[in-house]
Amino acid sequence: MNASQLGLFTALVFGIVVLPGMDMAFVLGSALTGGRRRGFAALAGIVGGGICHVLMAALGTSVLLRTAPGAFNAMLLAGALYLAWIGFSLVRSRSGFGLPPTQNGQTLGATFRQGLVTCLLNPKAYLFILAVFPQFLRPENGALWPQVALLWLVIAANQVGVYGGLALVADHARAWLQGRPDARLVVARSVGLLLIATAVFTGIEGWRRV
C-alpha cells in the first residue's frame, strides 16, 4: 500500500471516529461514571469490536449484509435498544458517579464486554466496513491479510487516540466533580440522556430502512 492510499484511509478513519456516535458516547459515560480505568476498559472493548469488524470485511461477511438489508436494519435497531438500556440505567442512577443500580458490582471485564457489544452493534462501523474498507484492499498490492492488519492498526490507533483522550478528559472532569454530589448526579443523568438520544436517532434511521 502506497503512502497516499494509507494517508487517505487514515484521514477517513479519523473523520469517522471523531464524529459523535455510540462508541464515543459509551466511552464518555464509562469514564464519567467509573473513572479512567473503566473508560479504558470500554475503549479496549471497542478496539476488540474493531478487530471483529475488520475480520468480517476480510472474510466476506459484509457481502451478506449487502445482500440481506434486513440484517443490517435489525442490527441498527438492536444497537439502538442496547444503547438505550445503558442510558436508562444512568438516568435512573441515584448516586451520580457511583455505578448505576443495574450495574452494581460491575467489573472492568463487564465494561469491556459492554464496549465490545456496543461496537459490534454500531451502525456507523458497519457502514464504514461496507462502503469504505473494501476499497483499500488491493490484490495488486500483494497478499490481503497484511493489508488487513495494517488497516486495522490505523483504525485502532485512531480509536485509542480519540477515545483514549476523551476518557482522560472525562476522568479529570469526574475528579473535579467528586466533591459536588448534586453536579455529579446531573452530569451522570445528562450522559444517560445523551446515550438515549443517540439510541433514538439510530433507531429512527433503522426503522426508516425497514
Draw up the topology in text:
Elements (H helix, E strand, L loop, with lengths): L2 H16 L3 H38 L1 H7 L1 H23 L16 H13 L2 H9 L12 H34 L3 H29 L1
Helix pairs in contact: 1-7, 2-5, 2-6, 2-7, 2-8, 3-4, 4-8
Number of domains: 1
**Class based on secondary structure composition and strand pairing:** mainly alpha
Beta-strand content: under 5%
Provide the gyration radius in Å. Answer: 18 Å
Average pLDDT, rounded to a whole number, is: 77
Please summarize the sheet with the most strands: none
Describe the protein in words.
- The protein has 210 residues and is mainly alpha-helical.
- It has one domain.
- Helices cover 80% and strands 0% of the residues.
- The protein has eight helices and no strands.
- The protein has helices at residues 3-18, 22-59, 61-67, 69-91, 108-120, 123-131, 144-177, 181-209.
- Helix 4 (69-91) packs antiparallel against helix 8.
- The N and C termini lie far apart (38 Å).
